[in-house]
Design goal:
Alpha-Beta Plaits; 6-stranded mixed beta sheet; alpha/beta; 4-stranded antiparallel beta sheet; 35% helix; 257 residues; homodimer; 9 helices; Molybdenum Cofactor Biosythetic Enzyme, Chain A
């Protein structure tokens, strides 16, 4: 067996989406795609997502399963000021530590609400609660910070606040090589080019080709996404796939349709 | 302990979203919300979602975990004609049965491709493969059927094809009482009404109130979603919450903002 260097290691993350509003269908999740794209830029692969309801035991169990099986765990949702925001309590239960008021978080909130009506109420002070031992993730957008607890990163559920917290973490997590993806589209029914796709993938170990069909303007089409940690290999495979599609009578569209 | 009748039982389902395209962030998932809303109409609660990559063992492990812990398991993705469509193989592995060609699925596909260019190619015939013992879920949209295997329902990943398969299942699954939800919106920062929300929820056992903040047109606002299996109770709680909001100086908006 050959030793794996840090460069070669595949870094993985899981995402735990917390919220009844996602499971009821009321809210269309936008954090999965956003966290996935951001992780990819950090050279970290999103390997698993779970969505659980606002229930302490369900959250805690998932946290403990996922933080053990991945390099990183991100969570979204449940860190606001209302009674249904129980992520911090569930996280503390998962880690077996008490919930405490984080003094720096308290200062940030005091400052943020200084000239706002009502000031720092008890409800707002809830947003300074953290599992004992946690660090803060800065959030320039709305004051209330995210929370880091070991390899777990606790983000807000509102997508633009989550984005602001991710921005604060950019470049600060250890990762490997980002995955490069090249997309080729064609007005082909994917079943007509299935052999061609399989053969192209088989001829280039280290790439994965995904096929994503659509039907628009009365015609079938598909986008073929070539993904690899080796950018040169991804581009080369893209060029060859384009060539093969053209030979088969389909005009390839660089970047997809 | 009082016996639980079928009417009182809470029916739950899990959803397994299968696909590298979701985990890479390339595709924004639309099936979670769609399946959630459909299940709710059937009186079944979506209790958990997982997203896994196109890897046989990861799919099979999740299938076995989720089908055991819920009344129903739905999956989306990976049942097309290309090499990256491996859901059927993973499902067969999970159930410990071989993959076979389903004779009725074959007939459906033969008929569908009868007057289409190329006819029923080997790649298209892949879509007639099922785990041994499976039944079909009709799909008027594109011919290729979904698959039912015990309490597992295998749907397409393309949202409108998944919708068509769900339509075919409407009213055919055992469920309980649908959850009724009532939404009240207000131009209030949720931290200002946190106590009011907690008290209203506590005063009405059997309801859950979720608070979903937003910021638009330069002002804070939030929608409060009251959910209950008891429709009358949900409406009553909505009326009371509106009253309390008005008393606190916020004009409630029925149906949310």
């Amino acid at each position: 067996m050959v030793g794996v260097t840090e460069q070669e290691k595949i870094w993985t993350a899981a995402l735990l989406v917390i919220g009844d509003e996602i499971l009821s269908g009321r809210t269309q999740d936008k954090n999965i795609a956003q966290v996935a794209m951001w992780l990819n830029e950090q050279g970290i692969r999103l390997a698993e997502v779970r969505v659980v309801p606002d229930q302490t035991d369900r959250i805690a169990d998932s946290v403990n399963a996922l933080r053990a099986s991945h390099d990183y765990l991100f969570t979204t949702g449940g860190i606001g000021p209302t009674h249904d925001d129980i992520t911090v309590d569930a996280m503390a239960a998962a880690f077996g530590v008490p919930v405490v008021i984080h003094s720096e978080a308290r200062r940030i909130l005091e400052n943020y609400y200084l000239n706002r009506p009502g000031g720092l109420t008890d409800a707002r002070l809830r947003m300074a609660r953290v599992p004992e031992g946690a660090e803060l993730i800065r959030n320039p957008y709305s004051g209330a910070p995210g929370i880091r607890m070991g390899n777990v990163f606790i983000l807000a559920g509102v997508p633009n606040i989550a984005a602001s917290m991710l921005e604060g973490l950019t470049g600060r997590l250890k990762g490997g090589r980002p995955i490069v993806s090249v997309t080729i589209g064609a007005r082909a029914a994917e079943s007509d080019v299935a052999d061609l796709l399989r053969e192209t993938e088989a001829a280039h170990p280290g790439v994965a080709i995904g096929s994503y069909p659509f039907f628009s303007e009365g015609r079938h089409g598909a986008n073929f996404v070539i993904r690899s940690e080796d950018g040169e290999l991804a581009r080369l495979t893209g060029t060859e796939l384009s060539l093969r599609l053209r030979e088969a009578g389909y005009e390839p569209v660089q970047g997809g349709i």
